[in-house]
Amino acid sequence: MNCLMGENPTIGHLKMFCCKCDILNNGKENLGKLDEKADDGIFLGYSLTSHAYRVYNKKLMTVEESIHIVFNETNHAEHESMKNYTKEDDQNITL
């Protein structure tokens, strides 16, 4: 109800679409001692029916909904730093 009081709503919990993420295997399948505990994924959006995220699982090549997601937000920081990158910067790089 912050909008009614003249305050801006908080949006810190929203994630960037197509962000890389890890889908944790919490009880989906029995894991062996050396099995990976997470699959690579791509964030597609939010579920319409629950409080879950819709993600594309690269390993299984399927779209699934899960709440057990860890977002890799370093891509966003790299994207922001590359936004101001020009060809002049490329010429200034010395080996």
Structure description:
By secondary structure, the chain is of the alpha+beta class. The protein has a domain at 20-75. The chain is 17% helix and 28% strand. It has two helices and five strands, in the order βββββαα. The chain has helices at residues 74-83, 87-92; strands at 20-24, 38-46, 53-57, 62-66, 69-71. Strands 4-3-2-1-5 form a five-stranded antiparallel β-sheet, with no helix packed on it. Strand 2 and strand 3 (53-57) form a beta hairpin. The longest helix is centred in the last third of the chain and has 10 residues, at 74-83. The protein is elongated. 6% of the residues are buried. Mean pLDDT is 77; it is low at 89-95.
Produce the secondary structure layout.
Layout: E1 20-24, E2 38-46, E3 53-57, E4 62-66, E5 69-71, H1 74-83, H2 87-92
Antiparallel strand pairs: 1-2, 1-5, 2-3, 3-4
